[in-house]
Every structure is written in C-alpha cells, then in structure tokens.
UniProtKB/TrEMBL annotation, chain A:
Organism: Thalassobaculum litoreum DSM 18839
Subcellular location: Cell membrane
Taxonomy of the source species: Bacteria, Pseudomonadati, Pseudomonadota, Alphaproteobacteria, Rhodospirillales
Top-rank lineage group of the source organism: Bacteria
Principal location listed in the UniProt entry: membrane
Keyword list, A-Z: Cell membrane, Membrane, Transmembrane, Transmembrane helix, Transport
NAD as UniProt keyword: no
Database matches in Pfam families: ABC-3
TM spans (from-to): 20-42, 51-70, 76-95, 107-128, 148-172, 203-229, 241-262, 269-286
Protein name: Manganese/zinc/iron transport system permease protein
PANTHER family per UniProt: ABC-TRANSPORTER METAL-BINDING PROTEIN, METAL TRANSPORT SYSTEM MEMBRANE PROTEIN CT_069-RELATED
GO biological process: response to zinc ion; transmembrane transport
Automatic annotation (TrEMBL), chain B:
Family to which the UniProt record says this protein belongs: Belongs to the ABC-3 integral membrane protein family.
Assigned keywords, A-Z: Cell membrane, Membrane, Transmembrane, Transmembrane helix, Transport
Main location: membrane
Protein name as annotated: Manganese/zinc/iron transport system permease protein
GO annotation, cellular component aspect: ATP-binding cassette (ABC) transporter complex
Domain of life: Bacteria
Membrane topology: Multi-pass membrane protein
Transmembrane segments: 12-34, 41-60, 96-114, 161-179, 199-232, 244-265, 277-299
InterPro entries attached to this UniProt entry: ABC_BtuC-like (IPR037294), ABC_TroCD (IPR001626)
UniProt-listed GO biological process terms: response to zinc ion; transmembrane transport
Intracellular or extracellular location(s): Cell membrane
Length: 404, 313
C-alpha cells in the first residue's frame, strides 16, 4: 500500500481501532485546544500558556518517581497526568505571583518559570534514568509526543478527556468572552474576573496535560496559539472565532494524527503543529477580509482608481500624461488611442471627471464646514454623497463654461 | 591523593565550569537590556528556532562542525525574527501570538527534518539541542596544575571555550561601546530620538548580540541554560538595585554563581545523597538560577514596584 492509501485509510478511520481512536482523540484535543486557546488569545496571554506547558515536566518526573517508590508502574498515564497538572498549576501561580508581587514584567515571569521548571524537570529525568527500570521509562516521549505503541486505555482516556474539555469550553464561553473583551463591564455584571481568568488558564492546562502524550510538552502550546490566530483572519465575531478556532484545531489534530500513523518517521506532535501552521498560512494568504491576497487586490483596485481619475482630469485639462501605469489603464479602457489622443468615450469620461471635480470644489468652497463634504477623497463621485436635487442646485451655482 | 583529585578536576570539571560560566555571562549581559525592554522572551524564541537551523546546516554541509551549525542557527534566528515581523504586520497579529506561531512551527519543522533525515551516524538529536552536553566537554590534555601554564596542553581545551570567550569579548565590547545609546534608548526612546540616537538600529543590534550569544552558548550548553540565563540573572539583579550599572554587575555575579554552583551540585550533589550518578548539569544550572530568583522575589531590597503609592487616588 502506498503512503497515500494508508493516509486515506487512517483519515477514514479504517487503519485499525487503535489509530482510529488516537486520531479521534487528537481531533478532540485540537477542538478543545482551539476553543480554549481562542480565549487565551483574546486575553493576550498566549505565551503564559507556553510557561504552563513547560512547567508540566517536573510534575511528570515526580509522579513517575513517586509511583515507582510506591511499588507501582511509573508509566501509569492518569498518575503522570495528575502530576503534570499539579506542577503546571504551580508554574501558573508562579507566573501570576511574580507579576503581581514584584516589579518584574509578565514576560520575565514567563521566561523564568518556563526555563527553571523545564531545567528542574530535566534534572529529575536524569535522576529517573539512574533508577532501576528508569532507562525504559520512556518519559522523553512526553517532550515531543508519540502515539506509536499507545495503549488502548490511554487512547480512550485522551479521547474522553478531550471531549470533557470541549464541554468545559462550551459551558464557560459566556463569562470568558465577557472578561476577554471588557473585564470592568464583566465585573459589574457580577462575574468574578480573577476566577474566570483562572478557569481560562485552567482549561488551557487541561488541554496541555491531555496533549502531553500525543503532541508533547514543547509543542502542545501550538494547539492553543495557532488555531485562534488563524481563525482571527476569518471573522470579527467572537462566537464564530471560537467555532472556527476549534474547527482548525480539530482538523489539525485529526489530520496530523492520521498522517503520522500512515507514514514512517513522522512524529505526531510536529506533524499536527505543521498541519495547523499550513491552515494558518492559508488563512493569512486567502482570508477575504484580512488576508494578504485580498489586501493586495484591494490595493491594486485603489491604485487603478486613483490613476484613472488623475489621468482623466489631466486629459480634460489637456495636460500631457507621462505616467506609464496611467497610460496603460486609459488605453486598456479604450479612453485613449495608442498615439495619446482621446477617444470619443475618453472625452466623455474626462468631461464627467472634470465636472465632478468642479462640483466638489464649488461645494467645498460654499459649505466648508459641512461634514458630509469631508468625504472628499478625489475618487468618490459627488452624486454618491449628495442627493440629485442638491447636485442640481449645485450645478446652478457653477461658474458658467465660456461659450466657444 | 590530592594530586589525583586535582588532575580529575582539571580534566573533567574545569572546562565545563568555565564554559558554563562564560555562556551564562554572555547570555545574561544582553538579557539585562532585553528584560528592561520587556523583550525577555526573545531568548526563548531564538533557542527554539536554533534547532531547524542546525538541522538544515547539517543537511547542507553534511558535517556537524561548529561554524556551519552556528551560521545555520543564526540564520534561523534571522528568519524567525523576519517571520514574526511579517505575521505581525501582514496579519495585524498581537506580538506574543505571532512569536508563538513562529517558534512552535519552526521547532516542529526542525524535529520533523531531524526524524526524516538520516542522522543516525552523527550526534545530533533533540535532547542534545535541549540540554546540551556540558559534561562531555573534557580536557584530556591536563596532567596536573602545571598544565594551566602549558600552551600545548591548553590548546587541547574544548574549542567551545575559545568560541565562547571570543563571543563574550564581542558582547562586552558592544555593550561598552554603545552603553549610553543602549541605556537611553531603553529608558526613554523618545528622548533618545530627540538627541539623535537611532533607536531602531540600537534595538536591532541588541537582538543580534543576543542571537550571537544564544547561538554560541546553545552550541556548548543547550537551549535550557540559554533561556534561563537570558531571564533569571537579570531579573534577580533587577530586584536588587535601581541602578543600571549595578544591575548588570549583579547579573554577572548571579550568572557566575548559578553556573558554578549548578555544575557542582549536578556533579557532586548526588554523591552527598549516596548516589553514584550525576544529574543533568544544564538542568541544575537553570534550577539554581531559579532558586536565586525565588529568593530575590521574597527578599530582594528592590522587589516591589515603585511609584504606585505616590500615584493619585
């Protein structure tokens, strides 16, 4: 079977029960990540979640050590997740505490918590390697994620927890939206802003610890950051932003997991992140409102209108035109012949442009303080701004063209 | 017995301690200004994107020689900074989020490249990039304390030591030469422009200096120390004093003590607990600098924000 066939089978959940479960789990994880991340993004705290994700490492290591010392299996996933959640929570409180109690900024707090917790985690990992059976602990798969050889119970756990996180996003979306946009207004409505913020970061934390096994702790933050940033290109409304971010996250998680299951040497976490980035890049390029392509087209249209108008005015005044773009636009529209002489339609258009310009100038001279007339930009025809009878009145005031 | 201890120390510990210290200082120095400019996370971003740079350099040159690696990492840092700007401007995306998008993506690309290419024969992997291998930088040529004066033996010191020394000298030179410009444009950009300082160029030069420090240190000690040293010693120093010069001096002191104490705890600490195995020196150095910062947050004489009590009610 080719890689493509394998990929298609994985996409359609026919590549075996285990990888189907993993793909569904990764999809749910992506939905939860995109949804929770949307609020984190709106609250401008994207990088706080980076500190939180790195802060999971010491918790994973300590949980492993404790479980082994208690005589159990150190790799028991629920235990590791509990440990990671505890240390991530401590890291989050550390960021808040440093920002609130000292003169240091949030960026310094994030950098400090991130590097120190990660460093401590690495120290503990090397301790584990010296423990009996620690060599096979496989905890380094938590750095970059791995779905290869995942137990079925673990996949079920991840899928279920992902579903719970999606539910939490749905329940908490109203207070979180209010706090993200206007904390003061939210407070007057009786919403506890601090607690809502904590709930939001708690949700990010839930996504993080679920995602540890699949995406890994270095890259899981991407599932919180990239989908909302991509979704922002498509909408100005927060409810749609959440839905689109969740959709992008879900597609990234599902497709990434399927791709990684289908091909060799395709680590799950990085693939999911790269799929998410591809969707982001598409949004950046092709979004109709804020995309690069759309704004390039808008810019070009505007440029054409300016050149056309200025060209017509110059023709009306009998001035020579040297600008290449202006000449090209005039010729292409059949307003000017190849030798630079106006055509019949060109003369008409030039006359109309000149008339419009004169109307504007007269109106602005007579009613200098009229706010309507401040919409003059040298492009908008005046009959789009004034009513027909206003224009007719204006025409009666125009300086009479000299008889020829 | 004493002589044996001396030789062992010179062979196994001297070079890592020196390299760790140089790397820590080289990162902490520009870190002071990055901290004051609220750009502390630049070190974080640079060290994430160094991985794809190194992998690409390896794929292009086919070797793991130091200079191509450093050029690759520096190139990746430039690409990342450019991409962040591009996304910020084109998409009107908030800076933090733009940074998050870029460095996670580039890191993911680096990991994927690494997994896809045949690097089994060489020592290049994600773990190495994350926590370096300070412990492996040993000085075989040392035969005793007299080796410290023996040119031939000194030439056998790990090359990272010399590279970091050069980089540190460059950074010290840069900061000494542009101290006034850096200070003024950090504290009062408007005034700096009024007196004719090109604040944009100064800011860019600072980021370049930080990138050079990060890349040189990254090669020797891995990205954890780099991120920790950009942030922790300057942040700790910031809680000790209100004066820039003293803050820089404190940060050098904290970086040095963290590097030395971290290495010693990692190498000898487990022995005190009866374990014959050492733990990760890179991780321990970051941990020690975190403890320093924690203590300063609790006890530092200048830990609180000033000016709030005086603000009008």
């Amino acid at each position: 079977m080719t890689t493509l066939e394998l990929f298609l089978r994985a996409l359609t959940l026919q590549a075996g029960y285990n990888s189907a479960l993993v793909a569904v789990g990764a999809g749910l994880l992506g939905i939860a990540g995109g949804g929770a991340g949307a609020f984190v993004f709106l609250r401008k705290r994207a990088l706080v979640s980076d500190a939180v994700t790195h802060a999971t490492l010491p918790g994973v290591a300590i949980a492993f050590i404790v479980m082994v010392l208690l005589g159990g299996d150190g790799r028991w996933l629920p235990g590791l997740i509990l440990g990671s959640a505890a240390s991530a929570a401590i890291g989050l409180m550390g960021v808040e505490w440093i920002t609130a109690r000292t003169r240091l900024g949030e960026d310094a707090a994030i950098g400090a918590i991130l590097s120190v917790f990660f460093g401590l985690g690495i120290v503990l990992l090397t301790v584990i390697q010296t423990m009996e059976g620690g060599k096979q602990a496989g905890l380094d798969t938590f750095l970059l994620g791995s779905t290869a050889g995942m137990l079925i119970g673990e996949a079920v756990l991840i899928a279920a927890a992902g579903a719970v996180a999606v539910g939490l996003v749905a329940i908490l979306r109203r207070p979180m939206t209010l706090v993200a946009f206007d904390p003061d207004y939210a407070a007057t409505l009786g919403i506890n802003v601090r607690r809502t913020d904590l709930a939001m970061m708690g949700l990010a934390l839930v996504v993080t610890v679920i995602g540890l096994k699949v995406v890994g702790l270095i890259l899981i933050v991407a599932l919180l950051i990239i989908p909302p940033v991509a979704a922002r290109f498509w909408t100005e409304r927060v409810d749609r932003l959440i839905l689109i971010a969740a959709g992008i996250g879900g597609v990234s998680g599902f497709t990434g997991a399927a791709l990684s299951a289908a091909a060799r040497d395709m680590p799950t976490g990085p693939i999911i992140v790269l799929v998410a980035f591809a969707l982001f890049a598409l949004s950046l390029a092709f979004s109709p409102r804020r995309g690069v392509l759309a704004s390039a087209i808008r810019h070009r249209r505007f440029q054409h209108r300016v050149h056309l108008r200025q060209g017509l005015l110059a023709m009306a005044r009998g001035e020579a035109i040297y600008d290449r773009l202006t000449l090209r636009i005039l010729r292409r529209r059949g307003l000017m012949r190849g030798d630079g002489v106006m055509t019949r339609t060109g003369r008409g258009a030039a006359g109309r442009a000149q008339l419009d310009e004169t109307r504007w100038a007269t109106a602005r001279r007579l009613r200098a303080d009229d706010p309507v007339l401040e919409r003059y930009d040298g492009l908008t025809p005046i009959d789009q701004v004034l009513t027909p009878d206003q224009v007719a009145h204006l025409d009666s005031l125009l300086p009479k063209p000299e008889a020829t | 017995m004493d002589a044996d201890w001396g030789v062992e120390f010179l062979q196994l510990s001297l070079a890592p301690i020196l390299i760790g210290t140089l790397a820590a200082i080289a990162c902490a120095l520009p870190g002071n200004f990055l901290l004051l400019r609220r750009q502390a996370l630049i070190g974080d971003a640079i060290s994430h994107v160094a991985l794809p740079g190194i992998v690409v350099a390896f794929l292009v040159t086919g070797t793991i020689a130091a200079w191509p690696m450093m050029v690759g990492a520096a190139g990746a840092a430039v690409v990342a900074v450019g991409l962040i700007e591009l996304i910020k401007r084109l998409g009107k995306v908030e800076p933090g989020a733009a940074m998050g998008v870029v460095f996670t993506t580039l890191f993911a690309a680096g990991v994927l490249l690494l997994e896809q290419s045949d690097t089994s024969g060489v020592h290049i992997d994600v773990e190495h990039a994350l926590y370096g291998n300070l412990e492996s930088l040993i000085w075989f040529d040392a035969t005793g304390w007299s080796s410290l004066l023996d040119i031939g033996a000194l030439a056998g010191l790990p090359p990272q030591l010399f590279r970091l020394a050069i980089v540190l000298a460059v950074i010290v030179g840069f900061m000494a030469a542009f101290w006034k410009e850096l200070a003024i444009s950090t504290f009062d950009p408007g005034f700096a422009q009024a007196v004719g300082i090109r604040t944009g160029a100064v800011g860019f030069a600072l980021v370049v200096a930080a990138a050079i420090a990060a890349v040189a240190a990254f090669d020797a000690v891995g990205s954890i120390i780099v991120i920790a040293m950009f942030v922790c010693p300057p942040a700790t120093a910031r809680l000790m004093t209100d004066r820039l010069g003293r803050q820089v001096a404190w940060s050098v002191l904290f970086a040095t003590t963290a590097a030395i104490a971290g290495y010693v705890f990692a190498g000898y600490g487990p022995l005190w607990f009866g374990s014959p195995y050492a733990v990760s020196a890179a991780g321990m150095i970051a941990t020690v600098s975190g403890v320093q910062l924690g203590l300063a947050c609790l006890l530092g004489p200048r830990r609180r924000r000033t000016g709030q009590a005086a603000a009008p009610q």
